[in-house]
Design goal:
This protein has 9 helices and 10 strands. The chain is of the alpha/beta class and 238 residues long.
C-alpha cells in the first residue's frame, strides 16, 4: 500500500505576522489535506484559519502531540499516513522539528519509510543569525544553557572559547520569563570585547535586533521579560 506524505507546516513566530509567514504553496497544501499532528490543537486551528483554510474545521482530524502525550506510543499518529493519506505536522511557533518536539515524529516517519516534505517558513534561529552580522558558515545552536548560575557562567565562557578557537557563531535561547536573568549572566561572564547579538520578537510588530560588544551592552538597559529572544555570541578576528 502506498504511504502518505508528512508535510512540515511552519506557523507564525509572532502576532500579526501572517503575511510574513504563509507562502502560496503552504496555503495550497493545507487545503489539500485534512489531517494534522499538532503541539496544541487550539493554536493550530487558529493558524490554519489565518493561513486561509477553506474547508470547515469540523472536517479536520487533529492528533494532539502535546507534552502530556509524548510518553505514549507514536502508532496512533501514523494511522492515516500508513494508509496513504497526507498529513501536516505543526509546531507551536516557527518550523516543526527545529528546537521542537516534532523532531520525534519526523524521525519515526523516516523509520517507517514515509516521505517528509518541509515547507518554507520562518525560523527564529536562522533569522537571528542572518541579522546578526556573525559567521553564517559555521555556527552552533545550543538550545538552553544551565539554570544554575555557576554552571551557566562556566558554559558562557566555554561558548566564548568556541567562538574564538573555531571562528564559530554560538546561538542559545532561554524561557522568555528568564531572559533578563540570562542576559545579566552573559554580561557578567563574557569578556568586554565579545560580541553579543540579541534578536527579539522576530517578524513581530516590536521586532528588535541589535549587535554590539558586551562592554557596550553593559551601558544599556533592555527589558526582555516574557519576550521571545535569541542570543548569539561571536568574536571578531581582525
Amino acid at each position: 500500500m502506498t504511504k502518505g506524505t508528512l508535510y512540515l507546516v511552519p506557523v507564525p513566530l509572532a502576532e500579526n505576522a501572517t503575511a510574513k509567514t504563509f507562502t502560496p504553496f503552504l496555503v495550497d497544501t493545507i487545503n489539500a489535506i485534512d489531517t494534522y499532528i499538532v503541539e496544541n490543537e487550539k493554536t493550530a486551528r487558529k493558524f490554519l484559519k489565518e493561513a486561509g483554510l477553506k474547508r470547515p474545521q469540523s472536517e479536520l482530524v487533529i492528533h494532539d502531540y502535546g507534552k502530556h502525550k509524548r510518553t505514549s506510543s507514536l502508532v496512533p499518529f501514523f494511522k492515516e499516513l500508513m494508509t496513504g493519506k497526507n498529513v501536516g505536522l505543526m509546531s507551536e511557533a516557527g518550523c516543526p522539528g527545529i528546537a521542537d518536539p516534532g523532531a520525534d515524529i519526523v524521525a519515526e516517519a523516516h523509520r517507517r519509510g514515509i516521505s517528509v516534505v518541509p515547507l518554507v517558513g520562518p525560523n527564529s534561529i536562522l533569522l537571528a543569525l542572518m541579522a546578526s552580522g556573525f559567521n553564517g558558515q559555521s555556527f552552533t545552536f545550543h538550545g538552553y544553557l544551565p539554570i544554575d548560575k555557576v554552571e551557566r557562567s562556566k558554559r558562557i565562557k566555554e561558548l566564548e572559547q568556541n567562538a574564538e578557537k573555531q571562528k564559530q557563531t554560538q546561538i542559545f535561547i532561554e524561557t522568555p520569563f528568564r531572559n533578563n536573568s540570562l542576559l545579566e549572566d552573559v554580561l557578567k561572564s563574557a569578556a568586554p570585547q565579545t560580541l553579543l547579538c540579541i534578536a527579539c520578537n522576530l517578524t513581530g510588530e516590536e521586532e528588535y535586533v541589535k549587535t554590539q560588544s558586551v562592554a557596550q551592552w553593559r551601558l544599556e538597559k533592555i527589558d526582555l521579560h516574557k519576550k521571545p529572544a535569541i542570543f548569539l555570541l561571536y568574536r571578531l578576528f581582525l
